[in-house]
Design a protein that fits this description.
Elements: H1 3-7, E1 10-14, H2 18-29, E2 33-38, H3 65-74, E3 79-83, E4 89-93, E5 96-100, E6 108-110, E7 112-115, E8 119-121, H4 131-134, E9 138-140, H5 141-149, H6 154-157, E10 164-171, H7 187-201, E11 206-211, H8 221-228, E12 233-236, E13 241-244, E14 251-256, E15 263-268, E16 270-275, E17 277-279, H9 283-286, E18 316-318, H10 328-347, E19 357-361, H11 365-376, E20 380-384, E21 399-400, E22 403-411, E23 414-421, E24 428-434, E25 436-439, E26 444-446, E27 459-461, H12 462-471, E28 479-483, H13 492-507, E29 511-516, H14 526-535, E30 539-542, E31 549-554, E32 557-562, E33 572-576, E34 578-581, E35 584-586, H15 591-597, E36 625-627, H16 637-655, E37 665-667, H17 677-681, E38 687-690, E39 694-697, H18 707-711, E40 717-719, H19 724-728, E41 736-741, H20 745-754, E42 763-768, H21 776-784, E43 789-794, H22 805-818, E44 828-832, H23 838-845
Parallel strand pairs: 1-2, 1-7, 2-3, 7-18, 9-16, 10-11, 10-16, 11-12, 19-20, 19-25, 20-21, 25-36, 27-34, 28-29, 28-34, 29-30, 41-42, 41-43, 43-44
Antiparallel strand pairs: 4-5, 5-6, 8-17, 13-14, 14-15, 22-23, 23-24, 26-35, 31-32, 32-33, 37-40, 38-39
Helix pairs in contact: 2-3, 2-10, 7-8, 10-16, 11-16, 12-13, 13-14, 20-23
Length: 848
């Protein structure tokens, strides 16, 4: 890597939210000079204002990443912070750029610009929004975040055991009158997490959710919704009015009764308006002098599917919500991707010069796309199939269709795969040394089945119908019906494909009806695709359950009788000659085996990859192991392209490592009993065995969590920067001592100290790399120093970078408290606290 070329580069990053901070950190790690401009007095952006949604476990919202990134960026060499500053314009001059700041500040010169200007929340003006100003019990989701973060939601609920709370979706978004005819993508998921959090805090809460179409999209989202929907009331439709009531019934919502279809009044103690996201004001003006298109809604756009950050100007990249609404985790990854584009071009090493074999497990769409992409970038993909025998181009030499990977050993840059290949009677064993592994598993897409009593020649899959529409449209009959949810929960890809096909058929003057429980309108153009279908005459009939449709096969037609939701008590009769059904998507049977090979858990839906936000979207607990395709998330082909960009960036970094890694973990060979406990407990495969029996640390694979240090029976493994003696020496008699994970509880404690709520005289916070570093011996030595109490504080379950650090620390607390001689007034406590949960940590340190 040309380090000198990197050091000569300068990049201006506009926006100090999660996307901008992620980009800045990544650039600085590669010695590129960064100017990070943020209009607010602090870093963090909108995500820093969001509450942690964790209950008993992490809910994967990603809000805590904002504090962690802000801490990292503030302390990073090579990053110049420009807080309380705003970029008003960007000028281009012979390949370089100038970011024009406020009048009194000199312009910032740069070789590249990353636009990560973020979003603004809709002001809920008009429609129901005026109720925010008129009634104190009507708040937005932003205000609810603030209340949850500061733990003062009860001031609205006056300590009621069963408060009545209403959530109103799509306030401001999907609004044609306001020219906001797009879905903000994240609002439904945010509200569902808010509801889950409130029900965890107030189990007796009576929650109603009013919605248009619930957008249940994303990893484990269906499972989360399935666990929640039986505990709340779901009402399809938006209330017409919010009225102020009396002390017993503070707020009244006027809406349609879903049972009687009559006008009804429901009473609530709190109403939450789920406001959408819109483009940050000033973004369009900032790029006015450049050739950067802006869409109708004010977001930057380039019309290049899957480009993930690249704008029409090669020197300007776009990350996060500057080009459309996104969740926190996607924004973080986009920041990294933009930074990597600059790093790769500056280092003048876009292609590996020597063989770089990468194992690709899976030969479905994602596997083939992965192989194409890797090959084009000079990597050497080896595709292990599941017997599909795909037709691959001749340029992809290493395709093994009938293969079974038997074992995976090693670590990043030195993995060893053992596999069998060949016909059943002639199978042979082989091995492959590779630098990385990509699990490109695909869900099984099974025929929808036919339990409707309809002849099979009248039922087509979406793919079958698309093929007929492309090759022989004259064969298509005049009357068509699509059933969106027949095969189970809809996917992003099937929903989009259905809308496009239904619209094409309607344009051919066919009578088209779509049956649906809900319609996904993901993507910036999702709502417009839906509107386009309706404009072309596609009829959408909404049902509650599949039982609301009865079908009868009558010679040339299928006669449907539909209980449409909006026509209570009435049946709608629909005639169709064909019924088009999406395939049924289920986790593939071999996912268990793939997960076992790389020693990773499946998610709660049986899909590949843990939902842990520390490693998503594409990473894993093991460096050099990556995921893409429908087997790990609900993704479209464009999503796969964006995932591959992130994977290739990480492969490139494996090929061109930065300064040699030093995790600060040392094995004392004289003490080592060669019991191999360290090898068994390490979730990162960062222990190798030399000469058959000697364990050694693999610096490139190590996360420096300290789990091996805490678990070594011979005390032979030491952490040079977090030794037991060093930590124990800081403890004073009578103090409260908190051993805090540096990525979560330590940042929460920092907030509490900075706002003056807690002082050094009250509490001693000892930062550890991970909660799993806290051993029984460390806690017992701490108690011997005579503290008032010892608190072990780490990530929420499911959020730990080292997989089970939190559960390890909980086990230590339970064990120590069970020992004889531990005084009642000197107990050991475990608590989980995210980086943005200073209030929760304070309640443990100083109970009210």
């Amino acid at each position: 890597m040309n380090k000198h070329a990197l050091e000569e580069k300068t990049v201006v990053v506009v926006g100090g939210g999660v996307a901008g901070m992620s980009a800045a950190r990544h650039l600085a790690q590669h010695h590129i000079n960064v100017h990070l401009v943020e209009k607010s007095p602090t870093l963090g952006g909108n995500a820093s204002l969001w509450a942690c949604m964790a209950t008993d476990t992490c809910q994967n919202c990603g809000a805590c990443l904002s504090q962690e990134l802000a801490q990292s960026v503030a302390n990073k060499n090579g990053i110049s912070l420009h807080l309380n500053q705003q970029v008003t314009a960007i000028e281009k001059n012979e390949g370089s750029y100038s970011a024009i700041l406020d009048p009194d500040s000199p312009p910032l010169k740069a070789d590249h610009v990353i636009l990560a200007s973020g979003f603004s929340a809709f002001r809920p003006d008009g429609l129901l929004g005026q109720a925010c100003d008129a009634h104190p019990g009507v708040i937005t989701t932003n205000q609810l975040n603030h209340l949850l973060t500061n733990q003062n939601l009860d001031r609205f609920l006056t300590d009621k055991e069963s408060p009545r709370i209403a959530f109103l979706q799509c306030v401001g978004s999907r609004n044609r009158e306001k020219k906001r005819d797009f879905c903000s993508q994240v609002c439904c998921k945010i509200s569902l997490r808010h509801i889950n959090k409130i029900l965890h805090m107030i189990p007796g809460a009576d929650v109603t959710m009013f919605y248009m179409d619930l957008q249940v999209i994303g990893k484990e989202a269906r499972t989360e919704f399935g666990a929640l929907k039986d505990n709340i009331r779901l009402v399809q439709g938006v209330p017409a009015e919010i009225l102020k009531g009396n002390p017993d019934n503070p707020l009244t919502l006027i809406h349609e009764n879903p049972d009687s279809m009559a006008r009804a009044a429901s009473h609530f103690d709190l109403v939450v308006l789920s406001v959408g996201l819109h483009a940050q004001p000033g973004t369009a003006g900032m790029v006015q002098g450049l050739d950067l298109p802006v869409n109708d809604w004010g977001f930057l756009t380039n019309g290049i599917p899957g480009s993930s950050g690249q704008s029409s100007d090669p020197g300007i990249l776009v990350a996060g919500c500057a080009d459309g609404p996104k969740d926190i985790i996607t924004s973080v990854v986009e920041g990294e991707n933009c930074a990597h584009r600059i790093i790769q071009s500056a280092a003048e090493a876009s292609q590996p010069s020597d063989p770089f074999p990468v194992a690709v497990m899976g030969d479905g769409h994602a596997g083939i796309e992965t192989a194409h992409t890797l090959s084009a970038l000079g990597f050497d993909p080896w595709v292990f199939g599941q017997g599909h025998r795909r037709d691959l181009p001749a340029t992809l030499n290493n395709y093994i269709p009938d293969s079974r990977v038997v074992s995976v050993t090693g670590y990043a840059n030195q993995y060893l795969l053992t596999y069998t290949a060949g016909d059943e009677e002639k199978k042979k064993s082989f091995s492959l040394s590779c630098r990385a592994i990509i699990l490109a598993g695909e869900d099984q897409f099974l025929p929808a089945g036919n339990d409707l009593g309809i002849k099979s020649d009248k039922i087509l899959s979406l793919e079958g119908f698309a093929s007929t529409l492309d090759t022989d449209p004259e064969m298509i009959p005049d009357k068509l019906a699509f059933w969106q949810d027949f095969s189970g929960p809809e996917s992003k890809q099937s929903s989009r494909q259905l809308l496009l096909l239904a619209t094409r058929a309607a344009k051919l003057k066919k009578t088209v009806t779509v049956f649906m429980e809900k319609m996904l309108v993901h993507g910036m153009d999702g709502q417009r695709l839906y509107d386009e279908a309706r404009k072309n005459g596609v009829k959408f009939l909404r049902i509650n359950t599949p039982d609301d449709i009865q079908a009868a096969d009558q010679s040339d037609i299928i006669q449907f009788t539909v209980k449409e939701v909006s026509l209570k008590g009435m049946a709608v009769s629909v005639e169709s000659q064909w019924l088009i059904l999406p395939d049924r998507s289920v986790p593939d049977v071999y996912f268990d085996a793939l997960a076992d090979l790389v020693n990773e858990p499946l998610d709660r839906e049986g899909g590949l990859q843990s939902p842990n936000i520390r490693h998503r979207l594409t990473g894993s607990f093991r460096k050099g192991v990556f995921y893409t395709g429908t087997g790990h998330d609900d993704v479209t082909p464009d999503d796969v392209q964006a995932e591959l960009l992130n994977i290739c960036a990480r492969l490139w970094e494996l090929k061109h490592p930065q300064d040699p890694a030093d995790p600060g973990v040392v094995i004392n060979e004289k003490k080592c009993a060669k019991c191999l406990t360290c090898l068994r407990v390490c979730p990162h495969s960062a222990i190798r065995i030399n000469n058959g029996v000697k364990p050694a640390i693999v610096p490139e694979a190590c996360y420096a969590c300290g789990l091996c240090v805490a678990n070594c029976p011979a005390l032979a493994i030491e952490k040079t920067d977090h030794s037991d003696d060093e930590m124990i020496a800081a403890i004073q008699k009578g103090q409260c001592v908190v051993f805090a994970c540096q990525r979560s509880a330590a940042l929460a404690a920092k907030t509490v100290f900075e706002n003056g709520t807690l002082g050094d005289q009250d509490c001693q916070v000892i930062e550890v790399p991970c909660a799993c570093r806290i051993s029984t011996g460390l806690v017992l030595k701490s108690l011997a120093r005579g503290p008032e109490k010892v608190i072990l504080a780490g990530c929420h379950e499911g959020n730990c970078q080292s997989h089970k650090g939190s559960s390890e620390a909980q086990d230590v607390a339970r064990f120590v408290n069970s020992l004889p001689g531990i005084r009642e007034n000197q107990s050991v406590f475990w608590t989980s606290a995210a980086a943005n949960e200073g209030g929760q940590l304070l309640n443990i340190i100083q109970p009210s």
